[in-house]
């Protein structure tokens, strides 16, 4: 089968598209999926550079790709919750940039009727990450205030829409005024153009010094220091991404006096049982809103699988709004 594999070099151009990668074999609780579309993620870039290896227990660790949509073409002996030909989407720890992948049948999500493979591939990583952070970990309630960094990112747009579903007031940041203008149509209440990483004062002004109840931190670095300054009393900060850096200097006094909760999270490294549980909750709590288009995906660009290098270059350029998708066939 065709697959994109990493040579762990420092260049996207060194990724290889090969034609003769073996089709994965199945465990009894797995299905074989013919992949129709794949969405890109920052982790793919890191994995390509050799900086974020796939979990040791994963199959086909040299193939990139965390999320996909496709058709079931083979069932393991113990699989009885899906059928041949079912249209499904899901998350994998690696291996989605390929014509076929194998995955546990309890990690599958049925694609709603009328949704294209292209749209479906763009949903799992952004929406499951946002749902896990905002609803399961931060315990968002109705009518609260939420700050989301990189609001025009795939996860940012998903978190924004989830927050609006619970009538939240959302403040979102970006380094691009054009992106903030586009995100307004998703219901953003306040756009923050971040130029000097000093947005805390503006957030406090907007919230009349109350701060935000929930902060979804998608870029890390010095943003976390600002988050701590503008988080509400007993507010929650969930650190999800580190694009702006691994380190920052923070005011510990503010964490104590405001009784803040700060946590970090990743999806990819979780044990299979936890992934199955989160997919189950996601299917119940969120998929109905995606199926009736109350929650939407936004795809910036679609590339043919043969143009994966161009697609990853575009992702690395930080110009994208929402998701970038590769289609196969
Ligand atoms: N922990 C997990 O399980 C998990 C899962 C999924 C994603 N993530 C992380 O969540 C974040 C969002 O992911 P995504 O796929 O939605 O991202 P994305 O669509 O690729 O968007 C990322 C955006 O972050 C902003 N950005 C990039 N470098 C930055 C910097 N140095 N300083 C400030 N802003 C910067 C850019 O937006 P502007 O140009 O508009 O500022 C960029 O477009 C990433 O950090 C990703 O690694 C984590």
Full CATH superfamily name of the largest domain: Medium-chain alcohol dehydrogenases, catalytic domain
Gap between N and C termini: 13 Å
CATH topology of the largest domain: Quinone Oxidoreductase, Chain A, domain 1
Estimated share of beta-strand residues? 15-25%
List the secondary-structure elements in sequence, H or E: EEEHEEEEHHEHEHEHEHEHEHHEHE
Question: What is the CATH level 1 assignment of the largest domain?
Answer: Alpha Beta
Share in helix: 25-40%
Describe the sheet with the most strands.
Answer: 7 strands, mixed
What does the overall shape look like? Answer: globular
Number of domains: 2
- The overall average pLDDT, rounded, is 96
Structural overview:
The protein is of the alpha/beta class and 329 residues long. The chain has two domains: 3-123 and 269-327, Quinone Oxidoreductase, Chain A, domain 1 (Alpha-Beta Complex), CATH 3.90.180; 128-264, Quinone Oxidoreductase, Chain A, domain 1, CATH 3.90.180.10. Helices cover 28% and strands 25% of the residues. It has eleven helices and 15 strands. It has helices at 42-48, 117-121, 124-137, 154-165, 177-183, 200-206, 223-229, 252-257, 272-285, 287-291, 308-316; strands at 3-5, 16-18, 30-39, 67-75, 87-91, 100-104, 108-110, 145-148, 169-174, 190-193, 212-217, 231-239, 261-264, 299-304, 323-327. Strands 3, 4, 5, 6, 7, 14 and 15 form a seven-stranded mixed sheet that branches. Helix 3 packs across helix 4. The protein is globular, with a radius of gyration of 20 Å. The two termini are 13 Å apart. The model has no long low-confidence stretch (mean pLDDT 96). The structure holds NADP nicotinamide-adenine-dinucleotide phosphate. NADP nicotinamide-adenine-dinucleotide phosphate (NAP) binds next to helix 3 and helix 4.
């Amino acid at each position: 089968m065709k697959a994109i594999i990493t040579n762990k070099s420092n260049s996207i151009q060194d990724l290889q598209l090969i034609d003769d990668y073996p089709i994965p074999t199945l465990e009894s609780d797995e299905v074989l999926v013919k992949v129709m579309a794949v969405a890109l993620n920052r982790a793919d870039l890191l994995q390509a550079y050799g900086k974020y290896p796939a979990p040791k227990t994963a199959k086909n660790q040299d193939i990139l790709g965390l999320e996909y949509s496709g058709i079931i073409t083979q069932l393991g002996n113990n699989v009885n919750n899906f059928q041949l030909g079912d249209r499904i989407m899901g998350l994998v720890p690696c291996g989605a940039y390929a014509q076929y992948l194998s995955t546990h049948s309890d990690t599958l999500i049925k694609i709603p009727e009328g949704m294209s493979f292209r749209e479906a591939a763009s949903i799992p990583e952004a929406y499951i990450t946002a749902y896990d952070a905002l609803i399961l970990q931060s315990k968002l309630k109705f009518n609260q205030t939420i700050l989301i960094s990189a609001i025009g990112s795939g996860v940012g747009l998903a978190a924004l829409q989830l927050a609006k579903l619970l009538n939240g007031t959302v403040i979102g940041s970006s380094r691009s005024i054009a992106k903030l203008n586009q995100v307004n149509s998703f219901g953003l209440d306040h756009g923050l153009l971040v130029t000097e990483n000093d947005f805390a004062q503006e957030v406090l002004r907007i919230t009349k010094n109350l701060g935000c109840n929930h902060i979804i931190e998608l870029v890390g670095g010095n943003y976390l220091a600002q988050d701590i300054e503008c988080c509400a009393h007993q507010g929650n900060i969930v650190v999800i991404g580190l694009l702006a850096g691994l380190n920052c200097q923070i005011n510990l006094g503010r964490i104590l006096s405001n009784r803040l909760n700060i946590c970090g999270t990743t999806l990819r490294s979780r044990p299979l049982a936890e992934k199955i549980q989160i997919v189950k909750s996601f299917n119940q709590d969120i998929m109905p809103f995606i199926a009736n288009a109350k929650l939407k995906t936004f795809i910036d660009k679609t590339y043919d699988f043969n143009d994966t290098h161009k697609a990853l270059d575009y992702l690395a350029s930080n110009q994208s709004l929402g998701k970038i998708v590769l289609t196969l066939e």
